[in-house]
Amino acid sequence: MQINPGFPPLSFDTVFRLPKVVLHDHLDGGLRPKTIIELAKECGYDRLPTNDPGELKKWFFSAASSGSLPKYLETFAHTCAVMQTAPALTRVAREAVVDLARDQVVYAELRFAPEQHLEAGLTLQEVVDAVTQGLKEGMEEARDFGALIEARLILCGMRHADRTAEIAQLTVDNYGKDSLVVGFDIAGAEDGFPPSKHAEAFRILRENFVPFTIHAGEAAGRESLEEAVREGTLRIGHGARMFEDFTAAINGIQTGPMSSYVRDRGIPLELCPTSNVQTGVVGDISDHPFPILQSMGFCCTVNTDNRLMSDTTMTMEMMELVEHFNYDLPHLYEITVAAMNNAFAPSEVRARIMNTQILHGFSELMSERSEEMRSSGLIYVDEDDDDYEFGDYGNFGDYDVNDVNELQEALGAGIQDLNFDIGMLEDLGINLKDLGFDLGDDEPGRGELGGGELGGGELGGGKPDKKKP
């Protein structure tokens, strides 16, 4: 499915310059290869597959591209092994913030599991303190080269362990208006470790009014999403398999009770396209349900997940949407605003970043984009009101970049009201019969895309059926 066919795609340089917000980025999945090698030497870790930075970078990507989440997670044994001292944790956190800032990220929520970093004798609180110090140093270093970034921390409990309630309390103890700790998550293997097994952790968080997100709808399907929603999650980590709660009917695709709840209440999905391909959620980026979910009204954000394992950046993730689904500035703006609005940082921080960085950055690039389209003949000036108009892209008009309301209206005008129908599935090469849908039926039926069997088609969460057109 392509949203704006016919328009020249955004360039990498334009997307790189956009102000970005990332909500789902694992600290232990974003180390620099050179740093891993140096830290391994310092702590005597001798199990790295190679000591060449370039080769190590390739190894992580290849090892993570197994089509299996459990195998994907095995790569973290190396990164966690070199993150066992306070100086190492501080360095990794500092470099992560700097790397994100160089990619024009203006707000980042980094997440990690403190319990994974206790082998050298650190306490849980010492681990949190070391990483927090790294975030502060990273923000300061970014300011030194002219980049403004706000970095915050989400503490994770490992879902296969029995310490999630303890980590939830650790989160409560460190949470506050002036703290960099802003929330909680459960991470790790999903199958066999549902959110309901960690109900005590979520109870602690709810009673203390601490926000949390839950990994769901990645390796595990609809049931994991249902449990996450029942526990009261404010966001969903991944959620790409939301389509398992869809059904096909004569009047189009319908959402089930859970997916309707998520959509109607604007619970954000922290989607990670490249990672979702590596772990086998989808067979290829072009098969990713991102544009379908967004067009159906779900609150979608794009994220990196693990920059090292996926060899990716926020710019590269956005470029996947541009190249495969022809996303343009209004669509990327919508995604960015959704992420900023649903960040766990205090409202005053979100508003400041939105008004001083995101709106300003998009306004400059929107002006350049409008001029590019006008010079190419895709845009013309209306003689009556001098508004710029071009095809289905929308009417952006002349606007004052200093007027926030006017700019928001201008940007919003380019976001099409995309109605989802069966034709969009056909664009993705999905046969209606794969959905359990018979043109002779009037009633909806659950098939591979619905809540029944998870099929092997492009959106089936398994390996793609290459025989399909």
What do you see in this structure?
By secondary structure, the chain is an alpha/beta fold. It has a single domain (about 10-360), classed as Metal-dependent hydrolases (TIM Barrel). The chain has helices at about 10-15, 35-45, 55-65, 70-75, 75-80, 85-100, 125-145, 165-175, 200-205, 220-230, 255-265, 275-280, 290-295, 315-325, 330-340, 345-375, 405-415, 420-425, and strands spanning about 20-25, 105-110, 150-160, 180-185, 215, 235-240, 245-250, 250-255, 270, 300, 380, 390, 395. The strands form four sheets. A four-stranded parallel sheet has the order 1-2-3-4. A four-stranded parallel sheet has the order 5-6-9-10. A hairpin with a 3-residue loop joins strand 12 and strand 13.
Largest sheet at a glance?
A: 4 strands, parallel
**Radius of gyration over all CA atoms, rounded:** 22 Å
The second-level CATH architecture is: Alpha-Beta Barrel
Distance between the termini: 14 Å
| Uncertain regions spanning at least 5 consecutive residues | 385-404, 412-421, 435-469
Shape label: globular
Helix content: 40-55%
CATH C-level: Alpha Beta
Task: Work out the number of β strands.
Answer: 13
CATH topology: TIM Barrel
What is the count of structural domains?
1
- Spatial order of strands in the largest sheet: 1-2-3-4
CATH superfamily: Metal-dependent hydrolases
Beta content comes to 5-15%
* Count of individual helical segments: 18
